[in-house]
Structure formats: C-alpha cells, structure tokens
Structure to design on (513 residues):
C-alpha cells in the first residue's frame, strides 16, 4: 500500500503539480520568478556553499538522467570493475560536494540574522528536502553498492513504466526502503519546483546551467555612506 | 463479420490447444526446480503430489506460495522451512494452463523419492570456473548484455568490490545445489533480478559457468565473511573531494571577493582630492 502511495501516487501528483504549476506561475507572475539572490547580504559563505551545492546537484542530476535515458550504455560501462569503481567514486565525490554545499548554506542561513528576512518557509522546506536527498543518496551509495549499475537495470524500467503511464512496481517494490524514500523525495523536489526558488532554472533564457556565477558589486563605499556625515556634514546619521 | 469471427475463433482455439499442453507447460514452468519421480531438486519431487494434497490448496500454493506461507498455513510453512525458505516464483499463466500442468503431473502418477538427484554440475571443469569468475566480475560480458553479478552481489574472493544491494553468494551452492543455482540463474524468482535479466537472459553456457564458479566459491569458504570495501570507498570519495576542492581553490584564487569595486572607488577618491 505504501508502495502505491510512494512510488505511483506521489510521482504522478508531483509531475502534474510541476507541469501545471510552472505554467500557472509563468502565466500569472512571470516577472516575479527569481532565485532571490542574497549574495549582497552575505557573499563569502554563499560562494563556497552555492558552488559546491550547484556542482554537486547538476552533475548528479545529469548522471541520474543518463542512467535513465541510456541504461544499456551505463551497464556496459559498469561491465569492467575498474570503470565501475571510477564511476562510483566520481559520483560519490559529487555527492559529498552537494552534501557539504547544502550544509554550508543551511549554516549560513542560520548564522546570519540579516538572511532571516529573506528566508521564506518554502526555503526551509527545500533545505530539509535537499538535505534528506543528500543523506539518503550517499547512504545508498555506501550501503547498497553499486548503485550506478543496478539503477540502470532495476530502476530505469520502473521510471520508464511511470512515463509510459503503466507503472510497474514488480522490481522496485523489492528495493530497500531507503531507495524508495530517495525516489519519492526526488519527486517531492520536482513538485516543489514551481513554488520555490527552484523555478529560477526554468526561466527564459534557460542558461542557469552553464552561466558562471555572478557577483553583485557596488561602485561606492557602503560603510562611508552609512555614516551620512561624509555626505552631509551637519546632519547626524540615524543609524551610526 | 463472419471472417472476423472465424479468425478470433481460430486464435482462441490455437491458444486453448496450446494452453492445454501440460507437458510443455510443465517443462517451461516447473522442470528447472522439480522432478516427477526423479528425486528432489530445488523443490520437492512432484510425483503423486495430486494424491497427497488437496487440488484447491495446490492451485493456491502454485499461484503465489509466498502469500500462502505468510498467511501462516502450517503445511506451507513446513515446506518453506524444509527448502531453506527459497520462494517459488509466482505462477504467471492462466488458470486453464495451471490445471493443465496439474493434470499432467497427475497423469504421470508414481511416488515421490526423497533422494537428492543433483547431477547438474558433475561435469564442471576448471575452465567453467574460470569463465564463470570472469562473467561474475564483469571482466567478460554476457552475450545478451545482462548486468554483471558483481553489481549487486558479493562473494568472499571478489577483492572487496562486490555489490551489497542483494544477498552475498558465499553459501549459495550449499543452499541451492547445482540444480537450484541453474534455476535461479535461468528464471530468478526475485523481482529485482527477474526485472534486470528479463530482456537480457543468460544463455545455457553462461548459466553453467556461473553455477560452477559459485560452487567453487562455496567450497572455498573459510570463515563465512565477505570483505566489504565500504570504508575504502568512502575514504576514496572524501579524498577525491578534498583534492578537487584544492584544485578549485587554486582556480578560484582570482575570483572577485568583495561586493565593492575597489578600483573604481579608489579612482573616485583620487579625483576628489
């Protein structure tokens, strides 16, 4: 029963919410879609956290996508034990990178009070889901080896059956519960796309995937400006 | 309309006649694990089973033995225990096919022998074992492009790189014997494995080589433990991550660190003076 909920109902709900939600958000608030950068509030920790997290999630997303689209190529690659382990270690490195990035970003949000003003409830939900996904993913990689190869052989048929609208749980229902959780959390993430900052990667022109990070800069000295005496010597600054 | 009716009647008859061929169905569905009067293999000898048990119970058990055992039926639990709790794959055919099989077993008559009739691996050679090892580890690919066993299974002499998703196979031969290994490899009752090899079945030679290798693995067992390279794997991951961070820190050395463009600011100050 829980299998039907976690592996059929939830995925379809998430996909429908994602599709309909994205169209709705585009239609009603297209110009408000933003990743709401807080880089001008805190820059240093964001640099490390953001880069580790994004490198990790983009690489892992593409990796999962390749195993879904070209399962036989992934199985053939894993046919040689050395190649299999090289692939697994590489994936684990990106996993660790993603996990570290998420931890740095959560720590940054909690530590910097000024960021609390720019943090919504949805951001907290997204952090929790991302952290859960990182932990279950690495857990699977370490305890149920070798994921890259059995994903292609066992999970790809299930995912394909989902997209062909005739879900087949035969193989996936025999998987350990942690794998099922990882799958359903992934679909939760997809469902959250239209209502969270995730939406930013769907924004036209879709170039978030390859564009370098951007830094907001000022051509003025903000500290000097806060002390308004520098501009109007006779007026006492209210915030100094 | 008439033609369509004739066509469908014909199809139905072909299916019906085909379905009734109990001997053929028996061979395809049952013979890998059972004999009729030839002694026990993976499962019990089926000679006279129709006399010994109730047909309704037998049908239920063949359709899904796991459910019957789970329901606590004492006879089913006892059979499960006697055969190492190895589940019989659920029967996927129709009811008429199932009754054709039962009729076939009934027609053979005879009485069950409890002798173990496992001669499958008697002619296995060292070559079979070597080939089986290469197939297991993925060093030589399967003809039908199946996933190598090592992806999910570990054995004690795989150098620690065996997979940990599925059961370790150190004792597989002692549990299954040759005939059982053959049956598991040919038509696995485990859903994940059945799914993985459904479109990439192993051929007869591969099944034989793998079974020979697994027999040698079980016989070489010393302490029952399998090396699990989880810690080295994690260390490699963390080490690799540290190295990549060092490289990136080098590349990011010249990044723009501050939110103030100091060059422009300095120029402004200079003009003001």
């Amino acid at each position: 029963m829980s299998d039907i909920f976690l592996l059929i109902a939830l995925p379809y709900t998430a996909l429908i919410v994602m599709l309909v939600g994205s169209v709705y958000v585009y239609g009603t608030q297209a110009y408000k879609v933003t990743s709401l950068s807080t880089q001008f509030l805190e820059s240093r920790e964001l640099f490390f956290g953001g880069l580790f997290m994004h490198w990790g999630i983009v690489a892992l997303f593409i990796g999962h996508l390749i195993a879904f689209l070209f399962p036989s190529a992934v199985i053939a690659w894993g046919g040689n034990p050395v190649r299999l382990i090289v692939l697994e270690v590489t994936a684990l490195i990106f996993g660790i990178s993603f996990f570290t990035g998420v931890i740095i970003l959560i720590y940054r949000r909690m530590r910097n009070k000024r960021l609390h003003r720019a943090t919504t409830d949805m951001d907290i939900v997204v952090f929790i889901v991302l952290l859960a996904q990182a932990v279950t993913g690495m857990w699977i990689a370490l305890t149920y080896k070798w994921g890259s190869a059995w994903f292609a052989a066992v999970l790809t048929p299930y995912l394909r059956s989902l997209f062909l609208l005739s879900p087949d749980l035969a193989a996936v229902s025999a998987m350990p519960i942690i794998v099922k959780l990882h799958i359903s959390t992934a679909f939760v993430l997809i469902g959250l796309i239209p209502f969270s900052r995730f939406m930013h990667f769907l924004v036209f022109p879709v170039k978030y995937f390859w564009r370098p990070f951007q830094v907001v800069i000022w051509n003025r000295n903000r500290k000097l400006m806060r002390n308004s005496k520098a501009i109007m010597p006779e007026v006492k600054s209210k915030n100094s | 309309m008439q033609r369509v009716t004739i066509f469908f009647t014909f199809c139905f008859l072909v299916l019906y006649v085909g379905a009734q061929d109990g001997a053929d169905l028996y061979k395809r569905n049952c013979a890998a694990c059972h004999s009729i009067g030839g002694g026990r293999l993976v499962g019990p000898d089926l000679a006279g089973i129709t006399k010994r048990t109730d047909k309704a119970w037998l049908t239920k058990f063949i359709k899904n033995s796991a459910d019957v055992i789970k329901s606590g039926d004492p006879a089913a639990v006892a059979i499960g225990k006697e055969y190492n709790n190895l589940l019989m794959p659920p029967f996927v055919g129709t009811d008429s096919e199932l009754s054709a099989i039962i009729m076939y077993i009934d027609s053979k008559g005879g009485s069950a022998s409890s002798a173990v009739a496992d001669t499958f691996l008697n002619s296995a050679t060292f070559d079979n074992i070597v080939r089986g090892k290469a197939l297991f580890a993925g060093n030589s690919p399967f003809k039908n492009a199946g996933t190598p066993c090592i992806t999910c299974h570990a054995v004690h002499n795989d150098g620690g790189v065996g997979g940990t998703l599925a059961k370790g196979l150190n004792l597989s031969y002692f549990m299954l014997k040759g005939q059982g290994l053959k049956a598991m490899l040919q038509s696995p009752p485990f859903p994940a494995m059945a799914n993985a090899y459904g479109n990439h079945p192993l051929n007869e030679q591969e099944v034989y080589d793998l079974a020979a290798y697994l027999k040698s693995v079980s016989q070489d067992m010393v302490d029952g433990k399998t090396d699990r390279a989880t810690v080295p794997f994690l260390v490699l991951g963390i080490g690799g991550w540290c190295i990549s961070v060092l490289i990136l820190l080098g590349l990011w050395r010249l990044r723009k660190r501050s939110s103030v463009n100091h060059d422009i600011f300095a120029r402004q100050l200079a003009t003001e003076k």
Notes: The interface with chain A takes residues 137-139, 141, 145-148, 150-152, 161-165, 190-192, 194-196, 230, 233-234, 236-238, 240-241, 244, 248, 252, 255-261, 264-265, 268 of chain B (CB under 8 Å). Chain B has three domains: 2-108, 126-223, 227-272.
